[in-house]
Amino acid sequence: MTDGLALWIGIVLVGVIAADLLVFGWDLHLFVGRRLDELIDYVTFWR
């Protein structure tokens, strides 16, 4: 991983965390976690 790529990934992560705080009131990680759980259940069903 190059320094530039690591910098961009860091900027995106900080932006997502800031948006979660300011827009969603710290509920974004719960939403994403629930959707990921549903996806895992769906993939497990088709296995």
Please tell me about this protein's structure.
It is a single chain. The chain has 47 residues and is mostly helical. It is 87% helix and 0% strand. The protein is flat and about 40 Å long.
| Average pLDDT metric | 90
User: Runs with pLDDT <50, length 5+?
Assistant: none
Write down the secondary-structure element order: HH
Q: How big a fraction of the residues is strand?
A: under 5%
Tell me the span between the first and last alpha carbons: 33 Å
Count of DSSP strands: 0
- Relative helix content: over 70%
Given helix and strand content, the structural type is mainly alpha
Radius of gyration: 15 Å
Overall morphology: flat
Number of helices: 2
Describe the sheet with the most strands: none
Fold blueprint:
Blueprint lengths: L2 H22 L3 H19 L1
Protein traits:
single chain, 47 residues, mainly alpha, 2 helices, 0% strand
Give the structure's gist in a few sentences.
The protein has 47 residues and is mainly alpha-helical. Helices cover 87% and strands 0% of the residues.
